[in-house]
Amino acid sequence: METTSDCSTGYNAGSTELHETDSSVRNLCFVWEDGRRAFFNYAYLISGDLVVTDTLNMMMLYFSGQIVTLKGYRLDLLFDLLLAHIPKTITASNPRYRLEAEASFAQVAEIIVKSE
């Protein structure tokens, strides 16, 4: 996984890069397949909602004034990490490239940001 930040983490989970150390300020960066990027401060994350199905999962993250919807696979794993404010970067990737070996990782196929 490529990162464009100066500090890299020692661990990543699929398409999700995690914060390496504790910090008083935590941001969450979303990266689309086309290179678009947006970040949100965890301080404005109000709640999260996860819908798990046999196929595509959906997670809604409610930030002050905006809703970020993630669609993908094994998002239950990502939900638990988000609960603890651990992910630093979540990158969307095309699901057709999902390998069976990656079935134990969360994969985000689509990111939608909508203003409330």
Describe it for me?
The chain has one domain (27-115). The N and C termini lie far apart (32 Å). Residues 1-12 have low confidence and may be disordered. It has 1 helix and 9 strands. A hairpin with a 5-residue loop joins β3 and β4. The strands form 2 sheets. The protein has a 5-stranded mixed beta sheet with strand order 1-2-8-3-4, covered by helices on one side. It has 116 residues and is mainly β. The chain has one helix at residues 75-83; strands at 12-13, 16-18, 27-31, 37-41, 45-51, 57-63, 66-73, 87-91, 107-115.
Task: Write the SSE topology.
Layout: E1 12-13, E2 16-18, E3 27-31, E4 37-41, E5 45-51, E6 57-63, E7 66-73, H1 75-83, E8 87-91, E9 107-115
Parallel strand pairs: 3-8
Antiparallel strand pairs: 1-2, 2-8, 3-4, 5-6, 6-7, 7-9
- The general outline is globular
Rg (CA only): 13 Å
The first-to-last residue Cα distance is 32 Å
Structural class: mainly beta
Beta content comes to: 35-45%
Assembly annotation: single chain
> How many E-type strands?
9
Give a summary of the structure in a few sentences.
The protein is mainly β and 116 residues long. The chain has one helix spanning 75-83; strands at 12-13, 16-18, 27-31, 37-41, 45-51, 57-63, 66-73, 87-91, 107-115. The strands form two sheets. It has a five-stranded mixed β-sheet with strand order 1-2-8-3-4, with helices on one face.
